[in-house]
Amino acid sequence: MDELLITRDLVKTYATVRAVDGVSFSLRPGEIFALLGPNGAGKTSTVRMLIGQTRPDSGEIRFSSAHGPLAHVPPQELGYLPEERGLYLDQTVLRTLCYLGQLRGMSAKLAQTEALAWLKRLSLDDRAKEKVSALSKGNQQKVQLIAAVLHKPRFAILDEPFSGFDPINQELALNLIRELRDGGMTVLLSAHQMQLVERLADRILLLNRGRAVLGGTLAELRRDAGLSQRLTLTFAAPLDAERLGVIPDVVAVERLNERQAALLLADGANLNQVLAALGAGADISDVQSDAVGLHEIYLRAVGPEALA
Questions:
Q1: Model's pTM, two decimal places?
Q2: What number is the average pLDDT over the span 117-126?
Q3: Main-chain phi, psi angles of 36, to 5 degrees
Q4: Rounded distance, CA 100 to CA 116, Å?
Q5: Would you tell me which CATH number, out of the four given (3.30.230.10, 1.10.10.10, 3.40.50.300, 3.65.10.10), belongs to the domain 5-216?
Q6: Residue ranges with strand state E in the chain
Q7: Does position 308 have pLDDT exceeding 50, yes or no?
Q8: Mean per-residue pLDDT for 90-101?
Q9: Stretch 50-67: mean pLDDT, rounded?
Q10: How far is CA 4 from the centre of its chain?
């Protein structure tokens, strides 16, 4: 399958800070690709180069074999949801969407038809003639999300799409992004909600300090991070957390309270042997086992600075 977007050895420096340092990745048609990392990892600088807001100092960005450099891509083929609000607050919701749709090549009639359909779907049809400034932050985010995909682009960059959403609207946005992918749209997603990204992304690239740290599917990230399972243990008596850390194949120990701890196991760990070693010196009353999630991989890969 031909890639829709290819970046090779991107470099971007601001004064004395190298924000992006030789990053390469590709996106396939009809996939959700997550670009993750702590603050200062280079995500925003990479996105700005992808949308043409800045140019790389060196390296290459190509959008499919048909168009070549990203600067040559017709505007109707790209959609962008910025992290910062990018709406006209003193205009009505409908007029804002129609205007932004026309900027992306839609006719006025089609933009209005599509905007009204999207507003109805996201329960904002009764707010269409209100000014954007009258909406809550969550509803403004819905309008901004609609604006990014109203014109049905082939490729959409969604930067923090869940910002300002409560859990119900997070699920709404999650299902919407899945539907866009299933309809053939390629989505580059940047977000801090690891549990939602884990449920959405087909592939993930983790950046830290301007460089790619881990990349691939979630299963590939687990393998490359050297992690497999997370055990949550409940003990009958107060536990000795230091003893848990010396058991073979236990990579990390998180003490939850005096009787509970979570253990991260190395890739390829023998669960029976780990449990036998744990039970030899303590009475375990409950065990829960889960595959290591993206949150643990993220923290393990980028180190203590991710907690800052």
A1: 0.87
A2: 96
A3: -125, 165
A4: 14
A5: 3.40.50.300
A6: 5-14, 17-27, 32-36, 58-63, 68-69, 78-81, 155-159, 186-190, 203-208, 211-216, 227-235, 250-257, 260-266, 284-291
A7: no
A8: 96
A9: 85
A10: 19
